Amino acid sequence: MQALGHFPLLRPSFSKLLSRSWRKVSILHSSSISDSSNQSRGSLPRFHSDVLPSYKGDSVRVDGDEFRHMTKVLRLSVDDRVELFNGTGGLIKGFILKIDRTGLDVMALEDPKTVLPNSTQWHVFAAFGTLKGSRADWLVEKCTELGASSVTPLLTERSPSISENRVDRLQRVAFAAAKQCQRLHEMTLNPPTKIKTLLPIVSQSKLSFLAVAEGTPLINTLSFKKMEASGMIIIGPEGDFTDKEVKMMTEAGASIVGLGPHRLRVETATMALLATLMLWSDSQESVVVGES
């Protein structure tokens, strides 16, 4: 993946945004809290459960891999406190009520909270099917940690396939990363898609950024954009997109952006673009709330 174009001096308007603290704004609706709230990053060990207790004093059964992790790895016992999350924003604090050979019961110490997702949902489309070793694992893991809403393997002329076994493994990587970083909304790993299938999605998106060699520096492009509910990040394979592929995506509405003067690996370009856009959308949210 090659991304060219020197970063110019930041424009004054964007420099002011960068000088502000990159904080998320807590959005409270009844029992809801923001995904970036300190309450989503507690010190208690956290485990996944599709079903959460409905109210304080209610209990749910935990079995399978999470049960084994709790009892065999962490050696938790009765009365130990834990947190349960369901991957869609639900979170409760509770304690282990009882343990038997097949599972354990967790009783809620409070009513469940519903945590709101980030204001802008960033969807990553990256051609990483040909990456060797653990590089694809690393890409998916870091996208999860940074807060991407979804990752989709992109099939291109120079990265035409990805094995089903690898997709299954990446699902497990994403799940483990969500637990490790205490993320409450699981990242979706979509099935591989071809560029022709991607084009209608690009045409409907108001924020579609296509990393291409010699593209307009990303910071310059952001100076003319405003925050939307969702956005797309499109990263090409090793060797970059073909001219034909770039033409199809730009004609569909994607904005070409550059990521600096050096040749970047697929996973490096993905992280650079995603991290910058996450910070940018956070800053835009802070400005909007500050002006209201």
UniProtKB/TrEMBL annotation:
Residue stretches making up the Ribosomal RNA small subunit methyltransferase E PUA-like domain: 62-106
Main location per the UniProt record: cytoplasm
Q: Which GO terms describe its molecular function?
A: rRNA (uridine-N3-)-methyltransferase activity
Q: Name one GO cellular component term.
A: cytoplasm
Ranges where the Ribosomal RNA small subunit methyltransferase E methyltransferase domain occurs: 122-277
What this protein catalyses is: uridine(1498) in 16S rRNA + S-adenosyl-L-methionine = N(3)-methyluridine(1498) in 16S rRNA + S-adenosyl-L-homocysteine + H(+)
**Under which main EC class is this enzyme filed?**
transferase
UniProt record similarity statement: Belongs to the RNA methyltransferase RsmE family.
Q: What protein name does the entry list? A: 16S rRNA (uracil(1498)-N(3))-methyltransferase
Q: What is the species listed in this Swiss-Prot or TrEMBL entry?
A: Aquilegia coerulea
From which lineage does this chain's organism come?
Eukaryota, Viridiplantae, Streptophyta, Embryophyta, Tracheophyta
